[in-house]
Amino acid sequence: MSISHSHHTSHTVRDVIFALLRSFGMTTIFGNPGSTELPFFKDWPDDFRYILALQEASAVAMADAYAQATRNAAFVNLHSAAGLGHALGSVFTAHRNQAPLVLMAGQQTRSMLLTEPFLGARDATEFPRPYVKWSCEPALARDVPMAIARAYYLAMQKPCGPTFVSVPADDWDVLTEPVAARQVSFAFAPDPVALQQIADALNHSRKPALIVGPSVDRDGAWDAVVALAERTHSVVWESPKSSRASFPEDHPLFAGFLPPIRELLAQKLVGHDVVVVLGAPVFTYHVHTGGPFVPEGTQLFQMIDDPEAAARSAAGTSLLCTLHLGLTHLLELVEPSTRSAPAPRVRPTAPVATNQLSAEFFMHTLMRVMPTDAIIVEEAPTHENAMHDYLPIRKSGSFYTMASGGLGYGLPAAVGIALAHPERRVICLLGDGSTMYSVQGLWTAVQQHLPITFIVLNNHGYAALKDFGRMFGIAEIPGADLPGIDLVTIARGQGCASLRVEKAEELAETLTGSFASEGPVLIDVLVDPVTTPVY
C-alpha cells in the first residue's frame, strides 16, 4: 500500500529554511555570495537583509560580533571551499569567542561531485573542523532544513559556537516537508551540593577573591557578580586575555587584570585563601613558565558553562552551570560578610601631553570625551596596558575583543556590533597592523551608514611582536615594520570620512567631532612607538 505525502511536500527547501530562519530571529544574513549559492537568493524575502562583506573572513567576524551582541545565533553565507577557506581564521576566532553561528557554504550540484567539478568542495564537512561544534552535508536534499535547525540548536547550546552545513546548489528547489521551530532551553542549574561547598568556602574565607571571565557578560550575569563581590567583600580580577568585560572596572573592589603567565598570575593570588573563578578557564596562558598554578594553601573553585574548560582545569574544584542561573542560586547561600572591605587599588595618575602622543594620553582623553553608553571594540594589542589603566569599562555589554589572538577581527566586529546596536556609538580601537587584515570592512560600515568611530593607534609596525622579540632576546625581527601605508586615503577610497591626528592638542576635539557623525569615521592617530610590553 502506498501513502501519498504530496500534501506535506509542497514547500521547497528554500521556503522551509527561510521560514525556519524567521522563526529563529535570524533575518540578517552575513556573507559574500558565490555561484554555488545563487539558488538560495531566488525570491529573496522582503523582511530579510543581506550584509555584504568584501571578504569572507570579515563576514564571519561581523556575524560573530552581531551574534554576541544580540545573544542569538547569526547566519553566514560562504562560497564553497574557497570562501570557507578564506573565512577559517575568523571561524577559529568565533570558536574561541564562543559565538553562536550557523555557517552555510554552497557546494556544487550532487550529480557533479564525483567528477571533481570546478568549485566543488571535497570532504566539505572536514574543512572547518575542529573549530565547529557540528559539521554536516545532508545525504538527501530534503533533509537540509532539518540540518539547519539542528545546527542552530547546537550553536546556541553552552558553550556556544559555530556550526557548519554544506548545501549542494541543486538542493534549494527540492520539495520537502515543513520543519517547525522548537523551543529549547539553553540554561542549566548547578549541582546544589557542589554549590553549597562554594558558598561555605566564601562564608568562612579570611580573604576571598573572584576572577571573572567572558561567560559572565555573555550570560547577562554582570549584576549578580557585583552583588556577590559586595556581599562577600571580595576583590575581583579580570581573567587573563578575557574577550569581554565582566565587572565595572572603576568599582572599588576591582583589582585589575591577571597576566597570562603562570608564575606571575599565581603571585597575584598570594594571600587569598579562597578564589572563585566565574565564567573563565583556569587559566589562559600566553607565555610558558613553571611553578604552581595557584599559591599553596589557596582553595580554588570554578563555575563554568563549558565542560571542556572544566575538564582541562589544572587545579581546583569545577562546577558546571550557566553563569546567571548559577550565581543567582549562589547569592541565596552566601552570607553578608563581616570582614572589612579590601582597600581599593591605587589608580595611575592622569598622563600629560608630550611631543609624541602616548597611548596613555590617548586612552585618558578618550575616556573623558566619549559618550557614556559607547561600546568599545578593541584590537590594539600593543596598547592593552594603557587601555586597562585609563579606559575603564563600566557597563555590561560595552566591551568586545577576540579570544583567539588572531588579527583581523576588530574592524569587522565593530560593524556587527553597530548593526546590533545602531542606537549606540561604537568606538573601534585598532593597531595599524590589525587594520590591514580586514580594512575592506570599512566599505560595509559606509554602505550600512553605521555610527562607528574607527581609531587607528598608528606606530608604523607590529609593535607587540617587537616587544615579544625583546622578551626573547631577539633584537631585530624581519617584517615587523609597516612603512608607507596611508590609512586616511585607503579609508576615503571606500567612502569613509577620515582624518589624521599628530598632536595631543588636536585629539579631544577630533574625537568629539567624530562621535557626532551619523556615519563611520576613521581617525589615524600617530602614537609614540615606545610601549610597555604586553604579554
Describe the structure in your own words.
It is a single chain. It contains 18 helices and 20 strands. The protein is an alpha/beta fold. It folds into 3 domains: 11-176, Thiamin diphosphate (ThDP)-binding fold, Pyr/PP domains (Rossmann fold, 3-Layer(aba) Sandwich), CATH 3.40.50.970; 192-333, TPP-binding domain (Rossmann fold); 359-526, Rossmann fold, CATH 3.40.50.970. Strands 3-2-4-5-7-6 form a 6-stranded parallel sheet. It has a 6-stranded parallel sheet with strand order 11-10-9-12-13-14. Strands 16-15-17-18-20-19 form a 6-stranded parallel sheet, with helices on both faces. Helix 18 (504-515) links the parallel strand 19 and strand 20 (521-526). The protein is globular. Residues 1-7 have low confidence and may be disordered.
Question: What features would you highlight for this structure?
Answer:
535 residues; alpha/beta; Rossmann fold; 3 domains; six-stranded parallel sheet; 18 helices; 20 strands; 34% helix; globular; disordered N terminus
What's this model, at a glance?
The chain has 535 residues and is of the alpha/beta class.
Overall number of structural domains: 3
CATH homologous superfamily annotation of the largest domain: Thiamin diphosphate (ThDP)-binding fold, Pyr/PP domains
Distance between the termini: 71 Å
Uncertain regions: pLDDT < 50 for 5+ in a row?
1-7
Query: What is the CATH architecture annotation of the largest domain?
Result: 3-Layer(aba) Sandwich
Tally of DSSP helical segments: 18
Number of strands: 20
Specify the biggest β-sheet. Answer: 6 strands, parallel
Q: Using the alpha-carbon principal axes, give the shape.
A: globular
Mean pLDDT: 93
Write out the strand line-up for the largest beta sheet, numbering strands in chain order.
Answer: 3-2-4-5-7-6
Please write the CATH class name of the largest domain: Alpha Beta
